[in-house]
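Teaching assistant's notes for section 4

Start the section by putting this record on the projector. Ask students to predict, before seeing the second block, whether 2-keto-myo-inositol dehydratase will look compact or extended. Collect guesses on the board.
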Amino acid sequence: MTLSRIRIGSAPDSWGVWFPDDPQQIPWQRFLDEVSDSGYAWIELGPYGYLPTDPDRLRAETERRELRVSAGTVFTGLHHGPEVWDATWEHVARVAELTRATGAGHLVVIPSFWRDDKTGKVLEDRELTAEQWRHLTTGTERLAREVGDRYGLRIVVHPHADTHVDTEENVTRFLDATDPELVQLCLDTGHYAYCGGDSVRLIETYGERIGYLHLKQVAPGVLAEVRAEDLPFGPAVARGVMCEPPLGVPELPPVLEAAQALGVELFAIVEQDMYPCPPDRPLPIARRTRQYLRGCGA
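Reveal the predicted structure now:
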């Protein structure tokens, strides 16, 4: 099958980049050089401040490498209620402004972690109360309206391990409680499998809510260890829970075929979590992954 509606890209995450500035990460210039060399045409901005935040410089750096930006990313804790709105919007507005300036049309929204992804420290209860669910859903709808009205961007909410939007049950609850006209998902195949979900079934059931894809696979053996030990996400990644395709689950061809069948244009951004990783590790993996996806028709 030729996946004519799927636009393939990659992200700083696949180069071990989780933070704006970290001594264990490669310089942003090297990331841009290597992602272009790997055969990708699209990238995400990654953590705000990693790539240049001056729009003119960022455009110049991406254009000369024949790269385009698909989305920016923000983290939010909207389940805490209206009192966090102002601080949330300050962060979102900065990222949205830069995202719009690059010509991108999406803003990936990741709910805040209930435990720290580096230290494993428990920050709050892993289950939301009914009131917190209402804050999360109404706050997300408000964010979608504001981002759309002010910046012309579409938000796509990213179910993520160690957040409150993670399992099939919680993702379904979130979707059923939000306006389909406002709120779509960024389906991350690796995170959803990590949390026990079936990506193909989600696409077939909630197809109109799928606005964006992250392509990722989980190593089943490592995942079994992670679940048995209840490891936080960061240490799980360091152990190698996310692996390059086609070595893990879910199988990507059925996911891509289900997405193609939706009949809409979709970004599918490769995001193989690898923090921290040796600086020379990502490039060969990125090349092999791009070749593999070409073999899948993408």
